[in-house]
Amino acid sequence: MAEPAVTGAVPSTVGPSAARPASPRRKWTDSPHLWFWVFVGPFVAGLLVFIVIPILWSVWLSFYDARNTVTPTHFVGFENYSRMLGDSAFRSSLVTFVLFAAFIVPTTFVLSLGLAVLVNGVKRGKAFFRSVFFLPTACSYVVAAMIWRHSLFGGTAAGMVNTVMGWLGAAPIAWLSVVHPPWYWLVLVTVRLWLQVGFFMVLFLAALQRVPQQLYEAAALDGATGWKAFRYITFPQLRATSTAVLMLLLVNAFQAFDEFYNVLSTTGGYPPYARPPLVYLFNIALGNGQDFGDGSAGAVILTLIIAIFALLQGRLTGIGRRDTA
Amino acid sequence: MIASRGGRSARYLVLGVAAVLFLVPFYLLLRGALSTEQQLVGIDHWTWFPTHPQWSNLGDTFHNSTVPLGRSMLNSLVIAVTQTVLVLVISGMAGYGLARSTVRYANAVFYLIVATLLIPAAVTFVPSFVMVSSLGWVSTLRGLIIPGLFQSLATFLFRQYFLGFPKELEEAARIDGAGPMRTFLAIVVPNSWGFTAAIATITFIGSWNAFLWPLVIGQDQSAWTVQVSLSTYITAQSVDLSGMFTAALVSMVPLLLMFLFLQRWIVAGVEQTGINE
Where do the TM regions start and end (chain A) (predicted)? Predict the structure, then answer.
């Protein structure tokens, strides 16, 4: 690509640069293949060794009886798969995470976009509000889970939410141990909202600032302000950002482990409800049984489901098309 | 946008309430850290403020025999710094190569990377654990650091950024006979500090706050990271609440300091991560 520029520049300037191509310094850069691999090779090699090979190994293990061993000898075909699919606890974990994703993705999207629009619309205190909403990004799921479990939603009358509810005359609720109604969902969902809304708000804020002001002025002349301006100008202008945010939210939702584990686990155990797939697989593969065969089969099933979700979402939002540009 | 006076105060009201809600957890963290154990568990009613702030909790939390906070913070620091620096080098170079190379298969390699991006790293923890344990890396810093160095998201973001990097700057260097590596080091890197800082911050936060992988790999106490240490408070038989909150507060200090000093920069960085292009 640089070649035409060099030769193009030669005639207009004087001779010396004509000697350059022969200089010994240009060795490995002569080959575009070599220089590509010098730059990209380390990353691709690591990706192969630490991501691709483990996935393939996992597929292989999923066809073996592999308890407490990673070099199994007993081939069992699809037995692990049928056992996992027949396992009601595993199936319920899949339902748990589909429900969780179906709720958390749109809710985070709406709240972060809403906050971004509000913050963008104020004249004073913009920096202050942005900082306050962004600050939880520094907090880990482990720390947030502690606060939620032991202070905010403490199950006794001494919990903060129960105290506030007490002023209104409501009886204290055991937030984490009641299954009907499933109050623990409120705890799990609010932790994640608090942690991730601010980050996505900043992404939306950046996009909002790039919407040309003339569009609003033109629309105002046509009588489109407020909600109409948002519906017909702001939202369509945010399309690229929205697509990226949705994808990141979905990937994040699939990773659900940290807050579930830290909000609900007990000494050496985890209650049978609100168990997302990663928590379940963690117990199977790395718990006492160390059942890598079943664990791998579960991971493969999960990966397939995620791939289907991702493809569907890519179809719907057209993310693949944009990358070719 | 034209907003009425009433609309404007409603907007401030909503933002104000939201801001208070967002700050409540930080207040609870501070409250827990400065309380005595009795104030947190021994009484049956809520107290808004600890009557006698227990500043000594902060020092005591490092002398807990079951939770090695000091050691695990050091582990986390080593891991986070190493991962951040190496991710910047590995992904920065890969992103540049993918953005600028003329080889035909560059796009195919890029799509392979995007594909692995869609498979959440957390799903691969079983196979990755199998891999790392067969290398004998369980409970070692190597096992905690190396598998996390190959971040498809960072490479993806660097590529998007370098696609938008002005080519004219590089062409001047090319005309002077500089190869791709010299062009990269002398022209591209020095002009990309803002973006690099953004990726560095995000990587550092992610690494410091990581939980599942350190939980799986850091089996010996000597290899615990700060998040693993904290989580042992939660699953312990008898919870030492004030110790737990103090440790949590201490664990956040590095990130809070970073936020305090780099706030403007971090936000600007997140804004320009290229996701909005």
Answer: 34-57, 94-121, 127-148, 160-178, 184-208, 295-312
